Amino acid sequence: MKQLKTILTFATLLLSLVFTPAWAISLSDAKSQGLVGEQLNGYLGEVKSSPEISALVKSINSKRRAAYAAKARKAGVDVNIMELRIGERLIQRAPTGQYVKSPNGQWKQK
């Protein structure tokens, strides 16, 4: 019985490692499905929240934060200025149908 439990546990772990990447949603899919959107501060926001979307947003925003800081240092400006500049560009470039956060804090579809 103990051996069967060990085998089942191992099989479950193995299957979760094999199939987990297939369940992860990409940024472009999340945007096209209206789950995330661009904000004026240069970071992604959750339009519809779930643990998977929260993890995606956190990961992308962490990478963006590092990139903004590097660009700000190189340009000799405060990181807040870089965030706002890039945020404006991301909102302008967002395709029709994707969500963006308006200055009043409401999500709207472009």
Give the helices and strands, then pairings.
Layout: H1 2-23, H2 27-32, E1 36-38, E2 44-46, H3 51-75, H4 79-93, E3 99-101, E4 107-109
Parallel strand pairs: 1-3
Antiparallel strand pairs: 1-2, 3-4
Helix pairs in contact: 3-4
**Total helix count?**
4
Mean pLDDT: 86
Assess the beta-strand content as a share of residues.
5-15%
Largest sheet, strands/sense/barrel: 4 strands, mixed
Strand order of the largest sheet: 2-1-3-4
| Order of helix and strand elements from N to C terminus | HHEEHHEE
Please bin the fraction of helical residues. 55-70%
**Low-confidence sequence ranges:** 10-22
- Rg estimate, integer Å: 19 Å
Class based on secondary structure composition and strand pairing: alpha+beta
For the terminal residues, how far apart are their CA atoms?
Answer: 58 Å
Strand elements, count: 4
Note the overall shape: flat
Overview of the molecule:
There is one protein chain. The chain is α+β, with helices and mostly antiparallel strands and 110 residues long. It contains four helices and four strands. Strands 2-1-3-4 form a four-stranded mixed β-sheet. Helix 3 crosses helix 4. The longest helix has 25 residues. The radius of gyration is 19 Å and the shape is flat. About 12% of the residues have low confidence.
List keywords for this structure.
single chain; 110 residues; alpha+beta; 4-stranded mixed β-sheet; 11% strand
Compact description:
With 110 residues, the protein is an alpha+beta fold. It has helices at 2-23, 27-32, 51-75, 79-93, and strands at 36-38, 44-46, 99-101, 107-109. The longest helix is centred in the middle third of the chain and has 25 residues, at 51-75.
